[in-house]
Structure to design on (90 residues):
C-alpha cells in the first residue's frame, strides 16, 4: 500500500499517534517512543533499556519497534498507529 501524503505532499514533522487504548497524542518526529508513551499516560514495559531484550517492543503501523532505542519517525500521513506487541514466549 502506498503511503498517504498530507495535503502539502511533505512529510509531517508533527505526528499524531493513535495508542492501543484509543487515545491520540501529537508529538514531534524524533521524540523517543518511551517519552511519547509517557506523555500519553501509558507505560511501555521495559527491561534492558539497551535494545537487546525486546521487552519494550511495540508495533508501529504493523512494524515491530524496540521503543527504548527508537524515536517517533516522520510520517507522510502525519499519523501512526501503535499496538503493543504480543510475544507468546514472554
Ligand atoms: S527494554 Fe530491552 S530492548 Fe528495549
Amino acid at each position: 500500500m502506498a503511503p498517504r501524503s498530507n495535503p502539502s505532499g511533505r512529510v509531517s514533522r508533527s505526528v499524531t499517534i493513535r495508542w492501543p487504548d484509543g487515545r491520540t497524542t501529537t508529538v514531534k518526529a524524533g521524540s523517543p517512543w518511551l517519552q511519547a508513551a509517557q506523555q500519553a499516560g501509558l507505560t511501555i514495559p521495559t527491561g534492558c533499556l539497551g535494545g537487546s531484550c525486546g521487552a519494550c517492543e511495540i508495533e508501529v503501523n504493523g512494524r515491530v519497534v524496540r521503543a527504548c532505542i527508537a524515536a517517533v519517525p516522520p510520517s507522510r500521513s502525519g499519523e501512526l498507529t501503535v499496538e503493543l506487541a504480543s510475544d507468546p514466549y514472554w
Q: What stands out?
A: Residues 46-49, 51-56, 66, 68 surround FE2/S2 (inorganic) cluster (CB under 6 Å).
